[in-house]
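Sequence only, no structure available. Ideas?
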Amino acid sequence: MAIMQTSKPASQSPRRIVSTVAPLLALMVAGPGLHDELLHTARQDSQAEPNPFVVLETSLGNITIELFPEKAPKTVENFLTLVRSGFYDELLFHRVVNEYVIQTGALGMDGQPRQHEVAPIENEAANRMKNLRGAVAMARGPDPQSADTQFFINVRNNPSLDFKAFTRQDWGYAVFAYVVEGIDVVEEIAKIDTHRVGPYRDFPSEPIALYAAYVR
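Reply:
I predicted one. Tokens follow.
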């Protein structure tokens, strides 16, 4: 199942959805808990400056993510610019697939597309960060270089979304952050019943809001 942009919906997809080190794989395979020791090991490649953290305030609780600018500099820069501009405030999670992903960044609370002038960003999926449970990645369209505002959080390990080759079919989805707090909130959102609403085939039956996103 691909991760596609829903502004131009595709069958079985959200809008756009590569190992820092071996312990990072263990981090997301290890089970429900996120382990401080493994996170510390994963951060060793990113110690020029402290990594930024962003809090996502949702209607089911808060999710805190740690961004890795040394691994995905263009993606992180784009994401932080959107966060600081307030773009991610008062949005809906418009795609929820249990045991797969939850996705936002497209629709306002009124269900209408959130307007933006964000140019597509370079796909940094070849950065060796993996689409593991709790990984945050950019969604995109069929063009690997088409990500802009929509992102998703992996509910489980999704190796099919990882970079494999510099081809249209195998480029993968750029991971730029990991959940460090609130993985239980991610899982709760993922269990919400869904139905089709217009082009959105996995739209939550009860609205799930992203009230605000801010740098911690």
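Strands lie at 53-58, 61-67, 91-97, 101-108, 135-138, 151-154, 175-181, 194-197, 200-204, 209-215.
Hope that gets you unstuck.
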